Amino acid sequence: MRTSLSVVIPAYNEQDNISQCLTSVSSVLKKLKLDAEIIIVNDGSTDKTGDIAKKFIKTIPNLKIVTNRPNKGYGGSLKAGFATATKEFIVMTHADNQFDFNQVQDFLSKQAESNADIVSGIRVADSDPKYRQFLRWGWNTLVRAIFGYLATDIDCGFKLIRRSILKKLSLPSDGAMIDTQAFAAARARGLKIVELPVTHLPRTAGQSTGSNPQVIIKALKELLFYWWQLKQEILVEQGRAVFRWEAIIILSILILASFMRLWRIDQYMTFLGDEGRDVMVVRDMLLGRKFTLIGPGTSIGNMYLGPLYYYMMLLPLAVAYFSPVGPAIQIALLGVVTVALVWWIGRQWFGRVPALLISLLYSLSPTVITYSHSSWNPNIMPFFALVSIYGIWKVWRLGYWRWLVISAASFAFILNSHYLGLLLLPTIGLYWFLARKSLDARRYTLISVIVFFVLMSPLLFFDLRHNWLNFRAMAAFFTDRQTTVNLKAYKALPKIWPIWQDINTSLLAGKNIPAGIFTSAFLVIGIVYLIKSRPSKDFLFVLVWLGTGLIGLGLYKQHVYDHYYGFLFPAPFLLLGFIIEKIKKWSYLLLLLLFTVTITNSPLRFPPNNQLAHTREIAEFINTQSAGQPFNLALLAKRNYDKGYVYFLDLAKAPYYTIHQKLSEQLFVICEDPICEPINNPLWEVAAFGWAKVDRQWEFPWGTKLFRLVHNPSGK
Questions:
Q1: Is 474 strand, coil or helix?
Q2: Do 385 and 569 meet the contact criterion of CB atoms below 8 Å apart?
Q3: Do 304 and 536 meet the contact criterion of CB atoms below 8 Å apart?
Q4: Which of 165, 187, 9, 184 is nearest to 98 (CA)?
Q5: Residue-wise over 489-510: b if at least 16 C-beta within 10 A, else e?
Q6: What distances in angstroms separate CA 613 from CA 28, 267, 533, 568, one per listed residue?
Q7: 236 has pLDDT over 70
Q8: Which of 24, 156, 328, 676 is the right S-S partner for 671, CB 3.0 to 4.6 Å?
Q9: How far apart are CA 573 and CA 341, in angstroms?
Q10: Are the beta carbons of 218 and 304 closer than 8 angstroms?
Q11: DSSP for 268-336?
Q12: Quick one: which H or E segment has residue 235?
């Protein structure tokens, strides 16, 4: 069957070009013997463009002239031409003669060869002025950042499009945005787009309006608005639009999550040595004392983490006037956002109701809450782990390669919070490998690698200045493995069930051991059931995430604490969502059990620890009792060290000195343990003070004791 073609040519004040344009187009169509029509859209021209075009009606019988009054813009002109077109395919070109219309045959051949819905030109040997080329490059870069790869030359005015697809595309723009809208809408709906190079000739007459500042500003506004509009359209078409009842429920869940994390946060937050150390480092940066290139040291392996979490703390600590509550609020808000992400991702993977249920459970989980209302570097891991995993899923499942940059950046933040985040690397690497490599895959992969190394670069600079101290510690961690890790995967097998049970007990079952055992068994049964019933690819994706994490933790030879699970926090909840979708009846009984034990063990049902207030009060008391005289400090505690107290002493500008700095005449010893013997204690700060005796002692209502020691050279 012969191809039929409508040629749409928008024209605005092109009186010097329109005659040559019509002559060229009609002669090419005649030579190709196509069933064709030419549609000139005179867009409110103020010159003789319309009059000249009308003179060709007698010589070109298939010529149609559409007149816009008033001017409707480039997009409005194209839409007017589309509405008039009657043929199977539409070719768009400009009236300025900058395209060689003879190449329309190449467009038709390319379409026939590929069965494409859109064939778009790529201008080669671009004859536009340099400033216009720069504007075009900037526009394409911005569009790719928002929509991903659409086309090499989005605004090339020479295109072929199948007319039947126009009813599928929402094209609200009357301006320069219409090309971007057409490509974005087509890509989002899976329509096929191919490209070919076209000759671009210099403009010989008339003036272009595409680089007009008003046109550019209007296009920028429309770009952001259309991104949101298209997103909503696709959600509706895919049956994933957020209904009013769903919005009300998730908003209620987020309000509940905020309450659970922010209620009396200054009283419930953890504030021990690690937290004190962190605010001391960040305060020093804010005051210009020292800018750090490393983060906290690890408890195993003598390695240093990166400093990104310290950089994250800068703003909230400054806004809070150096109160540690500021960074804790940041973590709490990040926890609320994580609840929202669990819901958003869950509804894409297994539907509305299961997503709401697991997000509610996540918002109430006692362990998640505990690590969501304190400022500590591992506490950012659940958020960034979920973003990183979601990013690589978007790359793998949807081909959105720009999300690889987000995944890589998030992965850098994960490694800056805890090196166990390395256990996400197999999942990220595997699904990068499995993802379909589009035209922009290599570019976004390169950008992602650069972004990752830039974010990790402070550690590199630190190592360069310190003879590769951190690198050598990492190498020793993996080579001297007697007490660190086992690199034989099968060695992890005996530990997988205990770790699996511990994860579910901690995260899903509110620390209730019988409920945790039951939940672990139920989830295993659910996994087997789903595997036998042809599970979705998304379910297998989560299973890989969980499985590699469990194996990795099984190879670790040290004790596994709850915060080590940070990179897996959302995973059991998402796994439960898949099982709820498939095994509704029994899953709801399990949920009833989980909600019961979770609420029963909620942190808010127990008195707050008041660690922050207690630490501040003792530090202020010591400062008062020192009477302005220099003093040293020691802390006797099994699970704490003195940096929390030192922070508040520093804030108060107390005359505190370490033993290294100055051996003073008085030593204040804080005893947090029930049984405490400050005299002759082996703790270095006490021993280095020398022979001493208790001058005075105090006891605080919460049980902490304070001793003031003075020198006693005689030992009597």
A1: helix
A2: yes
A3: no
A4: 9
A5: eeebeebeeebbbbbbbbbbbb
A6: 84, 7, 55, 32
A7: no
A8: 676
A9: 12
A10: no
A11: HS--SHHHHHHHHHHHHHHTTS---S--PBPSSSS-B--SHHHHHHHHHHHHTTT-THHHHHHHHHHHH
A12: helix 213-237
CA–CA dist 390, 348 (Å, integer): 11
- d(CA 705, CA 697) in angstroms, rounded, equals 7
Pick left, alpha or beta for residue 699 (phi over 0 → left; psi -120 to 50 → alpha; otherwise beta). beta
HSE toward the beta carbon, residue 124, CA cutoff 13 A: 8
Residues contacting residue 500 through CB under 8 Å, at least 6 positions apart: 520, 524, 550
Query: In whole angstroms, what is the distance from residue 457 CA to residue 455 CA?
Result: 6
Residue 215 pLDDT grade (very low, low, confident, very high; cuts 50, 70, 90): low
Residue 125: is its pLDDT beyond 80? no
Compute the distance between CA of residue 325 and CA of residue 268 in angstroms, rounded to an integer.
10
Total number of residues shown for the chain:
716
Residue (of 641, 222, 702, 188) closest to 398 by Cα position: 188
Q: Which residue has the tokens 């400062």?
A: 623
Q: What is residue 8's three-state secondary structure?
A: strand
| Among the ranges given (44-53, 226-235, 323-332, 575-584), the one the predictor scored with the smallest mean pLDDT | 226-235
Tokens 């509804």 map to which residue?
Answer: 347
**CA distances (Å), 668 to each of 74, 542, 710, in order?**
78, 52, 9
What does pTM read for this prediction? 0.79
Give residue-wise pLDDT tens across range 294-320: 888 887 777 888 999 999 999 999 999
Domain 4-236 is found in CATH 3.60.20.10: no
The Cα–Cα gap between 561 and 559 comes to 6
Q: Which residues contact 543 (CB under 8 A, 6 or more apart)?
A: 527, 575
Q: Cα separation of 403 and 400, whole Å?
A: 6
Cis, bond preceding 70 (omega within 30 deg of 0): yes
Contact 696, 708 (CB under 8 A): yes
Residue 107, token pair as written in the block: 């467009």
Tokens of 462: 């630190």
Residue 214 has pLDDT above 90, yes or no: no
317-327 burial, b for 16+ CB within 10 Å, e for fewer? Answer: beebebbbbbb
**CA pair distance 564, 559, nearest whole angstrom:** 10
